[in-house]
Amino acid sequence: MPEAAVPPPLPLLAAASSPVAAALPRARRRQQQQRRGWRRPRGLLVWGALVAFFFVMNWWMFSRLQDPSARPHFRLRRHPPRAPATVNSSLLTLEEVSGAAKGKRAHRVMLTRLLALAGHALAEAETRPEPKDLWEEPINATMWRPCSDQRDWKASEGTNGYIMISANGGINQQRVAICNAVTISRLLNATLVIPKFLYSNVWLDKSQFGDIYQEDYFIKYLKSDIQIVKDLPVELQSLDLEAIGSLVNDTDVMKEAKPSLYVKKILPILLRNRVVHFIGFGNRLSFDPIPSDLQRLRCRCNFHALRFVHKIQETGAVLVERLHGRRASSSPLKDNLLGQFAIKSDPSANKSDASKYLAVHLRFEIDMVAYSLCYFGGGKDEEDELEAYRQIHFPVLSELKKTTKLPSAAFLRSEGKCPLAPEEAVLMLAAIGFKRSTKIYIAGAEIYGGKDRMAAISRLYPALVTKETLLSPSELEPFRNFSSQLAALDFIACAAADAFAMTDPGSQFSSLVQGYRMYYGGGDLPTIRPNKRRLASILVKNATIEWNEFESRVRKLIHQTKQVHERPVARSIFRHPRCSECMCRTEQ
Q1: Membrane-spanning residues where (predicted)?
Q2: Residues 151-164: pLDDT tens digits?
Q3: Strand-pair partners of 361
């Protein structure tokens, strides 16, 4: 550091106030003071004018986005702010989030500038053709076909005992747990008891296996693999499983444990007590290394053995028909999802006659928002509301915040750890070329912030629909208060869509939908999965980036994620079924 910048020691400070200083020419000191005095107000005036200008411009653009006449008429849960000062449905830039994390009041310079540019771009694009690859997968996607239904073994006898599981989480976590339990039953030569579902204070759904999946079909389809029964034998039902050491919790089996651990640790308990009950069992079996025949069984369970009950299939068929139109053609995917209710192909039907639609899974419910520890521009009201939710539903996370220094909201966003808000999602869709007239099916229950939060999407894409707008109250009534069954309807609508966009690649729902589309799509069902870290690095330039550059960078990002490749090592086969255990390659 230069000497002039070093604070003078106390003796020098004293010398500075000595009569030597008074000997300076008074006129010279007065001129210096006047110059400094004039600089301050002039600088303050310029700075104040700039701030006022940006404030007025942002207010004007944001007020246009909030135009009630442009909003769709469907019901979404609304979380109104407590004070007008916090009404805000856009994301802040990283600098603003960083300021908010330090307790400073955020400048309301939101993504409204990009949203306004998107509106102009969509208006201009209406007369131009869409990008050629928007509704298509790369050509080499057609080289893969489903084949996990093929078997080259005999059914296990299941003589070593009985496997019970009580799966936790929502329908998607439960589905993964079911197929892992099937695989463990085969590995240990055990008989599987139809799985039970634990009640969750997040999902608030009492549905059991038979309320969602066809039990008899499940048992019959897998009879060549394992033995399955609906109930534990009477002589074992009175056993105190905890007392005899047959209860196995998630803490007893590490996450993604290898098959060898089950043989070493679980098989002795099974042989001794004749029954083992897994509690939870979420993601408790590794993907690699695992014998290929067990991996194939996992695929067979997920893509073939689990069929929705007729009630869900019938209503799902109504959804798809109203989205695609009556002239929609049948497909292997629809046959699997809808069974006897799938629309049969009309010989005179032309595929172009069917209405195309894009499905978007907005994983922006309050549980996801609260768990992410991210900030979404709602000020202290938002922070207090989400913390109160965490204390009830994620108490461990709340306690961790008090004792551990966690990453800041700004850091989480820059690393792509935050769920995409509706504003970010709509900017992505506009940038990659979906026209304003595109029919968009929104999956996801109660969007945090409700219609206020959805204003950006509804203004840029007014043809929004949900299961609540497509189905009548009487058609929805059998599913009320059953979130897992409602999620099954969303699953069907998303899997059958002409294009599917996920906003959180880590979401179990989006992962399962993506895998289903890969497995049954025949290379005709593209999935849009953004790299959130790279997208965040683009969105942070909201204040300066021009639309052409934004559009170009987002399209390049999405194009790279649509490339076809085999399942990476240790990645989920439910999400990446393009591998020799699940699918077979065909020669072009």
Answers
A1: 6-24, 44-62
A2: 999 999 999 999 99
A3: 443, 502
